[in-house]
From TrEMBL:
Keywords: Membrane, Metal-binding, Transmembrane, Transmembrane helix, Zinc, Zinc-finger. Its main location: membrane. Coiled coil: none annotated. It comes from Calyptomena viridis. This is RTP3 protein. The keyword ATP-binding does not apply. GO terms for cellular component: membrane. It is found in: Membrane. One of its GO terms (biological process) is detection of chemical stimulus involved in sensory perception of bitter taste. GO terms for molecular function: olfactory receptor binding; zinc ion binding. It is a single-pass membrane protein. The gene is Rtp3.
C-alpha cells in the first residue's frame, strides 16, 4: 500500500487500474461517527518484469463531516466487495500482461451492500480533492 501513488503517473513499463465506486464503511477516529459511501476509489499500479510482478495500491480516504479538524479515515470493505475488486484486478492483469482479450462485461460491478444515505460528500473525499472521483 502506498498513499503517495498518483493517478496517471505510472513509472515506465507500469500499468494503472482504478476501481471506481466501491462501497465502503468509515468511522471517524475522533468522534466515532460512522458513515457509508458508494464512491470509494482504489488506485492500482502494477508491473511484470522477468517473470515476477508487483502491485502497489492506494485506497482513497474520506473525512468526517462532523469534526472541525477531521482526519482522513480508511474505509472498511465487505468480503463480497473485496472479492469483486480482486476479480477486476486479476482481469486487468490478464489483459495488461498476458494479452488476454477483455470485454467491459468481464469486469464485475461492485454492488452496494449497505444503505447509503444522501449524495456523495465531495468536500470530504480525498479522491475528489485529487481529481480522481
Amino acid at each position: 500500500e502506498d498513499d503517495t501513488l498518483q493517478a496517471q503517473a505510472c513509472r515506465p513499463d507500469w500499468k494503472e487500474f482504478v476501481q471506481h465506486r466501491a462501497p465502503g464503511r468509515f468511522q471517524c477516529s475522533q468522534c466515532f461517527h460512522e458513515w457509508s459511501s458508494a464512491k470509494v476509489h482504489i488506485l492500482f499500479h502494477m508491473c511484470r518484469c522477468q517473470g515476477w510482478g508487483m502491485i502497489w495500491m492506494r485506497i482513497f480516504r474520506q473525512e468526517c463531516r462532523r469534526c472541525s479538524k477531521p482526519r482522513l479515515e480508511d474505509p472498511e470493505f465487505s468480503l463480497e466487495t473485496i472479492e469483486s475488486i480482486l476479480h477486476n484486478l486479476v482481469v486487468k492483469i490478464l489483459q495488461y500482461f498476458y494479452n488476454e482479450p477483455v470485454q467491459p462485461s468481464d469486469l464485475l460491478e461492485v454492488m452496494v451492500d449497505t444503505p447509503v444515505a444522501g449524495p456523495h460528500d465531495s468536500a470530504h473525499c480525498e479522491a475528489c480533492q485529487l481529481g480522481i472521483c
